[in-house]
């Protein structure tokens, strides 16, 4: 009896198992491994990868899924105890990034079923339009933390991803000139709202979402200070974000007139901004148009303006305590990370372009405050002592001769 060939053995196995040969495709693992088309469809649906640039990752994930299916069949015991991705047990102390992930995976997803392919598919589904750093912070880091927690592993230390990009005074001037020339469809006059936001962020050092918390009622024109409340939607991430910010006169001049009440900064069409939770500053489109028109690189984002402010402010004032207070940082290490190394003549170049971050209070005769002025800490203080001039020397009287 001659040995059977591979096709003959396959047909015999198909007849015994009741599988149709026409509905079976060869999977490139071994010559004798075959899987049905239904399994391939389930793998494609499970991976959720549609980007052709991730073809190698999809192939490796499909092979791993194929081998894992056989492992689960031959070894029913899981590698580590099965744990469902439930919000009431895996919130890990709270946070704002887990609820969207829990909603995406659903209550029946097992943690051991979440691999690299599922993480990539989640990033495409939830954060496709975000920059890679935001994708890592809001999606990959929380998922990895949950998986490590379920496996009993400690978290791994993060890498130092310090940004070093900031704008020189000349680059900032080019960006603001481009923003001042932006026009809207079917509008002949340029819109000034994007320029106002850029001038505010350069002068105040707020996050891209910080201008959403700037209300007209909280603006003090006498001291050029603005109150940024942390409880306002979009104001900040921590309690230290509640602070007064101080604008240089150049920013005040570029911002121009403010609305009567409400949010100080509007959409490019001059309408109130509808704040959406988790959407940040909502100015990326108009900012990118100004950036491209100014000829700046793609690394210049709205958040770079916060690094620019920290670098400019410290170059002129050398006041690290004020940098932390005005920037809303609770830790010195974080504030130091925003302050970049700058050339020695940066302060003079800023003065030449009209930027002056030194503390200066100019009292007007009739200040028009939009909020009650604070009472002084000390009242009825005596006037400063006047320096007394020395008494005149007595005149010498001539003595008569004896």
Account of the 3D structure:
The protein is mainly alpha-helical. The chain contains 14 helices and five strands. The chain has helices at about 5-15, 35-45, 55-75, 100-105, 115-125, 130-150, 170-180, 195-205, 250-255, 285-295, 305-315, 320-325, 330-340, 345-350; strands spanning about 25, 35, 220, 225-230, 245. The strands form two sheets. The protein has a three-stranded antiparallel β-sheet. Strands 1-2 form a two-stranded antiparallel sheet. The N and C termini lie far apart (about 165 Å). The model is unreliable at about 80, about 85-95 and about 360-390 (pLDDT under 50).
Defining key terms:
mainly alpha; two-stranded antiparallel sheet; elongated
What is the strand and helix layout of this fold?
Elements lengths: L5 H12 L6 E3 L7 E3 H11 L7 H20 L23 H8 L10 H11 L5 H20 L17 H12 L12 H12 L14 E2 L4 E4 L14 E4 L2 H7 L28 H11 L9 H14 L2 H8 L4 H7 L7 H7 L50
Helix pairs in contact: 2-3, 5-6, 7-8, 7-10, 8-9, 8-11
What structural class do helix, strand and pairing data support?
Answer: mainly alpha
Strand content: under 5%
Q: What would you report as the Rg, rounded to the nearest angstrom? A: 33 Å
How many runs of DSSP E, i.e. beta strands?
A: 5
Calculate the mean pLDDT score and round it. Answer: 76
Distance between the termini: 166 Å
Number of helices: 14
Largest sheet entry: 3 strands, antiparallel
Oligomer: single chain
Low-confidence runs (pLDDT<50, min 5 residues)? Answer: 78-82, 87-94, 361-388
Give the helix proportion (percent range): 25-40%
Shape: elongated
The strands making up the biggest β-sheet line up spatially as 3-4-5
H and E order: HEEHHHHHHHEEEHHHHHH
């Amino acid at each position: 009896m001659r040995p059977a060939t591979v096709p003959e053995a396959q047909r015999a196995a198909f007849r015994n198992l009741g599988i149709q040969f026409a509905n079976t495709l060869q999977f490139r693992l071994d010559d004798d491994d075959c899987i049905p088309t239904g399994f391939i469809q389930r793998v494609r649906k499970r991976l959720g990868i549609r980007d052709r640039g991730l073809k190698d990752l999809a192939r490796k994930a499909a092979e791993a899924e194929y081998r894992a299916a056989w492992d689960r069949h031959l070894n029913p015991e899981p590698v580590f105890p099965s744990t469902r991705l439930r919000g009431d047990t895996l919130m890990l102390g709270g946070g704002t990034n887990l609820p969207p992930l829990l909603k995406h995976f659903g209550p029946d997803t097992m943690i051991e079923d979440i691999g690299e392919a599922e993480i990539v598919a989640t990033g495409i589904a939830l954060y496709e339009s975000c920059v890679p750093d935001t994708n890592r912070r809001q999606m990959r880091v929380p998922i990895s933390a949950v998986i490590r927690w379920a496996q009993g592993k400690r978290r791994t230390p993060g890498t130092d991803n310090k940004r070093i990009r900031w704008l020189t005074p000349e680059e900032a001037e080019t960006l603001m000139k481009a923003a001042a020339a932006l026009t809207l469809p079917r509008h002949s006059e340029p819109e000034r709202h994007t320029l106002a936001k850029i001038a505010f962020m350069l002068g105040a050092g707020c996050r891209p979402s910080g201008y959403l918390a700037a209300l007209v009622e909280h603006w003090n024109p006498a001291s050029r200070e603005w109150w940024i409340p942390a409880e306002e939607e979009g104001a900040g991430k921590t309690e230290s974000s509640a602070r007064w910010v101080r604008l240089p006169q150049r920013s005040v001049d570029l911002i121009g007139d403010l609305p009567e009440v409400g949010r100080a900064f509007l959409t490019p069409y001059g309408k109130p901004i509808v704040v959406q939770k988790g959407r940040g500053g909502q100015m990326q489109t108009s900012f990118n148009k100004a950036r491209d028109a100014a000829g700046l690189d793609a690394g210049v984002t709205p958040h770079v303006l916060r690094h620019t402010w920290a670098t400019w402010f410290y170059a002129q004032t050398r006041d690290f305590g004020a940098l932390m207070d005005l920037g809303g940082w609770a830790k010195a290490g974080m504030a130091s990370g925003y302050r970049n190394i700058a050339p020695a003549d940066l302060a003079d170049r800023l003065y030449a372009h009209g930027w002056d971050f030194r503390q200066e209070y100019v009292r007007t005769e009739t200040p028009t405050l939009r909020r009650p002025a604070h009472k002084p800490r000390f009242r009825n203080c005596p006037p400063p002592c006047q320096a007394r001039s020395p008494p005149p020397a007595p005149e010498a009287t001539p003595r008569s001769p004896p």
